[in-house]
Write a structure and sequence with these properties.
Blueprint (H helix, E strand, L loop, with lengths): L2 H4 L42 H14 L3 H13 L11 H13 L3 H9 L3 H4 L2 H15 L2 H17 L4 H29 L3 E2 H8 L3 H11 L2 E4 L4 E4 L13 H18 L3
Antiparallel strand pairs: 1-3, 2-3
Helix pairs in contact: 2-3, 2-4, 3-4, 4-5, 4-9, 5-7, 7-8, 8-9, 9-12, 11-12
């Protein structure tokens, strides 16, 4: 055999060794249960600040803690970034405005509503509250009660959040009770005598309710012949004061009854 035949060709080379095969991917065992859903997103901004704080506002309202309600609502409304036109903002702004009215701060109630954007401010509820607030600021007593009734009628007929409907109704009734009591006390300080018909214009309730309230307060006498109410001097009855707890409870009870008796404001 020749030397050339015994030597391998230089162009020929051994085949490369293939890499080891990867092990097969594990197969998940079969199960009858679907995969668990992903948890809720915790990204910033996903929590509605108005719904979050609303239960606190309800609690403050029912405990008549108006300063706490106002403080909590004002803070919540500051966190409205990106939600200025969200209808759930009513959950904060409407109770806030009505709380200012309960404290006889009509300008503050007005400016709370003015902070709303056009998409919300031009809806029926804020517009009726604007009219009510203006009547309170101008002390147009007849309009106050009719416009409060307009708000109550609207709330009962609209598709507002049911909890908001309930709170708005409670706050309006509380406002009317406090406003009437405050007005009746001012009349006692301003007049030496006043006819029942004149008192009716200031309080927006029937003569029978006025006489019930006057009697319950212990601060008025009534002449059925002249139909005049006369305030009792505090020096004669030093214990007859609106700060007296039992008198206030009776006063509140009569006003609450007046709402049912009158049917409208």
């Amino acid at each position: 055999m020749s030397q050339n035949q015994q030597t391998a060709s230089p162009s020929a080379s051994a085949a490369p060794t293939p890499p080891p095969a990867s092990p097969p991917a594990p197969v998940a065992p079969e199960t009858d249960h679907p995969p668990a859903p992903a948890g809720p997103s915790l990204q910033a901004g996903t929590v509605n600040p108005f719904r979050l704080v609303f239960p606190d506002l309800v609690l403050h309202s029912r405990q008549s803690r108006w300063d706490d309600l106002i403080r909590t609502a004002e803070r919540a409304d500051l966190k409205k970034a990106g939600r200025e036109s969200d209808v759930t903002r009513f959950l904060v702004v409407i109770p806030l405005s009505l709380s200012y009215l309960i404290l006889d701060q009509a300008p503050s109630a007005h400016w709370v509503l003015m902070r709303l954007p056009d998409e919300l401010i031009n809806t029926p509820l804020p517009q009726l509250l604007f009219k009510l607030t203006a009547s309170i600021a101008d002390r147009k007593y007849t309009n106050i009660y009719s416009r409060a009734n307009d708000v109550l009628s609207l709330v009962s007929e609209t598709t507002l959040d049911p909890e908001l409907k309930e709170v708005v109704t409670e706050l309006l009734q509380k406002f009317l009770e406090v406003f009437r009591r405050r007005t009746f006390d001012l009349l006692r300080q301003a007049f030496t005598e006043i006819s029942v018909s004149e008192v009716q214009q200031y309080l927006g309730v029937s003569p029978d309710v006025i006489l019930q309230v006057a009697k319950a307060s212990g601060q008025w006498t009534y002449n059925s012949t002249s139909q005049l109410l006369r305030p009792i001097c505090e020096t004669s009855h030093p214990l007859a004061s609106t700060s007296d707890a039992s008198t206030l409870r009776t006063f509140k009870s009569v006003w609450s009854g007046a709402i049912g008796l009158e049917g409208t404001y």
